[in-house]
Amino acid sequence: MNVQLQHIVRNMPKAELHMHIEGSLEPELIFALAQRNGVQLPYPSVEALREAYAFQDLQSFLDIYYAGASVLLKEQDFYDMTAAYLDRAKADHVRHTEIFFDPQTHTARGVPMGDVIHGIHRACADSEVSATLILCFLRHLSEEDALATLEAALPYRDRFIGVGLDSSEVGHPPEKFARVFARARELGLHLVAHAGEEGPPAYIASALDVLHVERIDHGVRVLEDAALTRRVAAEKIALTVCPLSNVKLCVFDDMGGHNLLQLMDAGLVVTINSDDPAYFGGYVNANYEAVFASLPLGLQHAYDLAKNSFTASFLPQADKQKFIDELDAYFAAFNVV
Ligand SMILES: [Zn+2]
């Protein structure tokens, strides 16, 4: 990609809509927290942990992800993790982020729900970046566990804006969580779900029809079903695509083979996100730079991707417009919009 386009993409204002806060834990912070909390890690050094990041698929990644999360015990640990991510996001010109967190990963280890939510929320409140929280259910666990988790989080209802569904997709279709999503909907929470990453397009359809989600996380396999693609485009259901994650988890062999441009050409509302940035090789700007370096994308694509990130957010309309106005002003110098 040419130097000017690289500069524009890096510096343009953007939102991030698909980032798991536990996936922002860098090996250095994992070791620092392990030392602070007296946790013994199954890796002798920061370097050994980094080397273990050569996963083959979603499951081998998740095994390391849960080992890393085991150092998070106190409210301050969640604060420090979140503050570190928000600093990185700010450096990438992220104006707004909707952060996923996995309470079951922590409550199952005896960490109180309040410590998880307060620590993450307090860091968001202290940041210059606009940040809201989406509570995610681990889909490899039961729906009963998800229902109990939602109830346990209700005393902190004002601290999160929505619920999501993550972890191992294949074999755990969205409809497994119909009741807990219906309950979240009654509570006025926003709804999202991972679907169509490793799982089939049918999971995207059931996330829409059974769970009534407003965005699809990943969703790259939608193109395997032409009718579904037309529907997702017509309904303006945004896809939160995570390019480096897709390549690292072998959803695509390499970035040149990523279907991002086909998704955009199909009229879909596509956004770029980092998923688990500490594990997948980069924060949001690294994801933008990787696709712009490997695919025939130009200035208009850069603008569209950034604008989509704001329009697909759950911000109030006035806040969306404020950021889009800033984006328009930024691009005004480059003859696009
Ligand atoms: Zn994800």
From TrEMBL:
Keywords associated with the record: Hydrolase, Metal-binding, Nucleotide metabolism, Zinc
GO CC terms of this entry: cytosol
Active site: 197 (proton donor)
Residues carrying the site annotation Important for catalytic activity: 218
This protein's record includes keyword Metal-binding: yes
Pfam family, one: A_deaminase
Record: residues binding substrate: 276
SUPFAM superfamilies the record matches: Metallo-dependent hydrolases
Adenosine deaminase domain boundaries: 13-329
InterPro entries assigned: A_deaminase_dom, ADE, Ado/ade_deaminase, Metal_Hydrolase
MF annotations from Gene Ontology: adenine deaminase activity; zinc ion binding
Gene Ontology biological-process entries: adenine catabolic process; hypoxanthine salvage; nucleotide metabolic process
Cofactor, free-text remark: Binds 1 zinc ion per subunit.
Function: Catalyzes the hydrolytic deamination of adenine to hypoxanthine. Plays an important role in the purine salvage pathway and in nitrogen catabolism.
Protein name listed in UniProt: Adenine deaminase
Originating organism: Pseudoduganella lurida
